[in-house]
Amino acid sequence: MVCCRRGGPARAGFLVVVPPQHPNSPAPECVLRMTSPALQEVVALLGCPAAGNPAQYLFERAISAAGLDWRFVTFDVQPERLAAALAGVQAMGFRGCLLSGPLQSLALPALLFLSPTASFSGAASLIERTPEGLAGHMTQGRGLAAALRGHTDLDGARILLAGAGATGRAAALELALAGALEILVCDPDPAQAAALVEAIGALNSSALPAMVPWQTALEIPERVGIVVSALPVEGSPIACSFSGLRNSVVVADCALVGQPSAAVAAGLKAGACVIDGLEIHCEKTAIDFQTLTGSETDIEMLHEALDEFLSA
Predict the structure, then answer these.
(1) Which domain holds residue 303?
(2) For residues 245 and 251, what is the distance between their CA atoms, to the nearest angstrom?
(3) Residue 300, SS3?
(4) What torsion do the CA atoms of 212, 146, 278, 68 make, to the nearest 10 degrees?
(5) Whose C-alpha in 40, 109, 270, 306 is 20 to 30 A from the C-alpha of 4?
């Protein structure tokens, strides 16, 4: 068997095969066979809407820094087309995808596996393709916990959590598993707050949950050392402020906004330690990146990239 290429050398990645021929046979045609496909890994953002989401900007910066030959693509997907879009992620062999907005909670029926946080929160922000099917993760709570650990100790902490939606539930689980001693939950929807209190109570953790009545000016008990706002931002009429902030409290707001949120601004005014949505989002992005690529990335680089994106 002879390897050759008619008209020039063989192309990289291809083996040119000439089958054995009888001496009197006509000249054979070369057959190209791909020996090293080297397909690029693809990660996607599925959003509704996808416009204005910094995921592609941040991931491409991290991909470049890691020296990976990967691609990131962004798609605007209507909720009624989400199942088809996720089937496409699996069929086309994408490495995984990120979900934003209402798609996070709508994706669960299409997923074969759920992480404990995705199951607890009822939503998935990150989807990983496995040989068996799609696996859903909810990493917003992990991003919050990672950001908080950079400023305070979560073990034995007493926390006021405003917001009992998917982000609030993910945050509650991660904080409980991190060793929080008490989690006070409040939400404009009392039933939603009560459901989260019950779910925390069912965990095998040291966290003692309790429900706090909702009010637009939430009073922070003296024993509370961490205040977390996990209230929705997009299209939400909910307005909330915190009363009783002091410099011994850590204030974290999960909202990804360019300007300081009301909670962050109030925390700064009171001299408190504040963690804004940018810091939390960068920690979350680093977790997403490592989950999909197996490589760590630099948080400061992500923060610089996010600042650039929001100031553009």
Answers:
(1) 41-138+284-311
(2) 9
(3) helix
(4) -150
(5) 40
